[in-house]
Specification:
By secondary structure, the protein is an alpha/beta fold. The chain is built from six helices and six strands, in the order H-H-H-E-H-E-H-E-E-H-E-E. It has a six-stranded mixed β-sheet, with helices on both faces.
Length: about 200
């Protein structure tokens, strides 16, 4: 029993280290961006994180052994125009033991910290423990197939083209589940309200 408990603790520590590594890499990239100064940003993102945690807990009691783990569990895509909200959101996820990955710009894949983009996407697709993938709503709203996700969060208002492209990462051919789209605007107002739209998987 002690050995099993030690292995569990070690695996949990390794997962936290991986999350921290991704967070630090992404923060380094974010430091090169011009990021808007936003008051009460933490409070707004706390509301988003609470909603995500609520969604991820909904499948905790489903023990159907005939369903692959990647289809059994809710998975979430989070899109933002800026790196800063994604970094701050990752802190909330980390504190609650939620494994996540950051996306990178596919245009520079193979160089520097972007070299493991394919690996990160594979981990989100294949690992049932990696529940959240955070992406840039402009540079990463096209070209990715992420039908393992069945919830999509849009943290800011987007133009119609980028919005449809972002939603289309999850709601596309190959999707077998209903896709839930959560729109909120963390840039304005005190606490974001959530506008949920549902896209039935009839593709």
């Amino acid at each position: 029993d002690q050995v099993k408990e030690l292995k569990t603790t070690l695996n949990s520590s390794m997962a936290n280290c991986i999350n921290l590594k991704h967070q630090l890499e992404f923060a380094l990239e974010a430091g090169r961006e011009k990021i808007p100064r936003l008051d009460s940003f933490g409070t707004k993102l706390s509301s988003v994180a609470t909603k995500i945690l609520e969604i991820l807990k909904q499948d905790a009691n489903n023990d159907d052994d005939d369903v692959p783990p990647t289809e059994l569990r809710n998975k979430v895509l989070v899109f933002s125009k800026w790196s800063e909200p994604l970094i701050q959101l990752s802190v909330f996820l980390l504190e609650n033991g939620i494994q996540f990955r950051f996306g990178k710009d596919a245009g520079v894949e193979g160089r520097g910290p972007h070299a493991n983009l394919a690996q990160r996407l594979a981990q989100f697709r294949d690992d049932p423990e990696v529940r959240v993938l955070m992406l840039n709503s402009h540079s990463q709203s096209t070209g990715l197939t992420l039908t393992q996700a069945n919830h999509v969060f849009l943290l800011e208002d987007l133009d119609t083209a980028h919005e449809l492209q972002a939603i289309g990462r999850a709601h596309r051919i190959g999707q077998t589940r209903t896709t839930h789209i959560w729109k909120c605007d963390i840039l304005h107002g005190e606490v974001p309200s959530f506008d949920e739209a549902v896209a039935v998987a009839d593709l």
